[in-house]
Write a structure and sequence with these properties.
- The protein is α/β, with parallel strands linked by helices.
- The chain has 11 helices and 19 strands.
- It folds into 2 domains: 68 residues, EutN/Ccml (OB fold (Dihydrolipoamide Acetyltransferase, E2P), Beta Barrel), CATH 2.40.50; 253 residues, Rossmann fold.
- 49% of the residues are buried.
Length: 362
C-alpha cells in the first residue's frame, strides 16, 4: 500500500512546466512536496491535499519528496477532454490520456508514417540523467547553437519530465530545443508510445539534428550485474542502429566514486557495451592524464571486441565550459563537476563527437 497523509499547502516554492514544488504542513511539521498539474490540477496556498509519503519515509535521495495525490479543496469535476487516446501511467489511479504522435488524430501522423531512416543522425545514448547537460552543451557550443537538439526521455526512472529541474533549465537556456517522452514517461513537447517512434519524432517532427536518449532523474541501481535501470542505454544503441542512426555511447566513469564497481569505468557501462548492445556504437572518451587514461582503457578492453564498438578520444572541455558560461549547475550522486570532473568530461566528449559528425555531414 501507499503511505498516505493529509497536508495543507503553506507555500509555493517554485513552478515550472509540468510541476509545482510546494511546502506542506503535515501533522504540524513542514515538508517539501511535488505536484503535477497535469494529473492533479494546479494547487494553491491553503489547499488541503492528500500526499504519497512513501519515498520520504524510506529516506530516499532522488525522489525523496512527498507527492500530491489529490487536492481535497477542489470539487470533483470533469477535466477538459484530451484529444488523444493513449494512456500514460496505464492502469494506475492516476492514468491520464495524451495525444501521442503516432495516433490518427495527431497532426504529425503523416510525418511518422513517411519515416524511412534517421539518415545517420547522431544519437547520444546516456545512462544517467546528469549526463545530458554536458553532452547537449558541448554539441550546442561547437555548432554555435545552430544544431537542433532533442532530448528523448525514456521511462526507466522518473516518469513526469516536469520532475526534472535540469531539463527545464536546459530548455529555458536553449541548450535543449525539444523534449520527447516515451513509454510511460509523459509531459514532453511530444508524446510517443515507444523509443523507436520517439526517435522518429525527434527526426521527423522536431527536425532535430541530433538526439540524446536517457532516462529521467532517479536511476535505480544495485550491485548486481543486470539490476540497474540504466541498462536501457544498450537498448537505445540497438534502436538507433535499427533506425539508421549513429549511436554515440557515453562511458560512465569516475575517479571520485568510492564504490569499486563504479571506479574507473563503471560495471554498468561494461554490461551495456558487452552484453546488451547487439550492434556497434561510437564510444566517446575524454582526454585524460596518462594514468587515468590507462585505467579507463584497461576497464573498457573486455567490452570492445564483441560487436565492433569504435573508440574516439576527444577534448571533453567544451561542454563543461559552456555549462559554466550558461551558469548551469549539475551534480551526479551529489558530486559537482569539480568533484567528479571525469564523469562530466566523458559526457561532454559525446557531445563533441556528435558536433564533429554534424560538421562532416554538413
Amino acid at each position: 500500500m501507499l503511505n498516505r497523509k493529509n497536508g495543507r499547502i503553506l507555500r509555493i516554492v517554485s513552478e515550472r512546466p509540468g510541476a509545482q514544488e510546494v511546502i506542506v504542513d503535515v501533522e504540524g511539521s513542514e515538508a517539501r512536496a511535488v505536484n503535477y498539474p497535469a494529473l492533479v490540477g494546479t494547487v494553491e496556498v491553503g489547499d488541503e491535499v492528500v500526499l504519497n509519503t512513501t519515498a520520504v519515509e524510506l529516506a530516499l535521495g532522488t525522489g525523496g519528496d512527498h507527492f500530491v495525490i489529490c487536492d481535497l479543496s477542489r470539487p470533483p469535476g470533469v477535466a477538459e477532454r484530451s484529444p488523444g487516446h493513449i494512456m500514460k501511467l496505464r492502469y494506475t489511479p492516476l492514468q491520464a490520456a495524451v495525444l501521442s504522435v503516432e495516433e490518427d488524430e495527431s497532426p504529425h501522423r503523416e510525418q511518422i508514417q513517411e519515416f524511412e531512416s534517421l539518415d545517420r543522425m547522431p544519437v547520444i545514448c546516456a545512462e544517467l540523467h546528469s549526463q545530458i547537460a554536458p553532452a547537449a552543451a558541448a554539441l550546442k557550443a561547437l555548432t554555435n547553437y545552430r544544431a537542433k537538439v532533442a532530448y528523448v526521455m525514456t521511462d526507466g526512472a522518473a516518469l513526469p519530465i516536469g520532475f526534472s529541474r535540469l531539463v527545464a533549465e536546459l530548455k529555458e537556456k536553449g541548450v535543449i530545443d525539444t523534449t520527447v517522452t516515451c513509454g510511460q514517461a509523459f509531459g514532453g513537447d511530444i508524446e510517443a508510445i515507444n523509443l523507436y517512434t520517439a526517435l522518429i519524432a525527434a527526426k521527423q517532427v522536431a527536425e532535430a539534428d541530433a538526439a540524446i536518449v536517457c532516462q529521467g532523474p532517479g536511476n535505480a541501481g544495485t550491485d548486481s550485474k543486470y539490476g540497474f535501470s540504466g541498462i536501457e542505454q544498450g537498448e537505445a544503441i540497438n534502436a538507433c542502429n535499427i533506425l539508421g542512426g549513429t549511436p554515440i555511447a557515453i562511458v560512465r566513469m569516475s575517479f571520485a566514486d568510492r564504490r569499486e564497481r563504479h571506479h574507473g569505468v563503471s560495471h554498468h557501462t561494461l554490461t551495456v557495451l558487452n552484453e546488451i548492445a547487439l550492434a556497434p556504437a561510437l564510444i566517446a572518451l575524454p582526454d585524460l592524464p596518462e594514468e587515468k587514461a590507462r585505467t579507463v582503457a584497461r576497464g573498457l578492453a573486455p567490452a570492445l571486441s564483441k560487436v565492433g564498438h569504435q573508440v574516439r578520444t576527444l577534448d571533453g572541455g567544451p561542454g563543461l565550459a559552456e555549462l559554466a558560461r550558461k551558469d548551469v549547475r549539475v551534480t551526479t550522486m551529489g558530486r559537482s563537476i569539480e568533484e567528479d570532473r571525469e564523469f562530466f568530461l566523458a559526457a561532454s566528449a559525446a557531445g563533441v563527437l556528435a558536433a564533429e559528425l554534424l560538421g562532416k555531414a554538413g
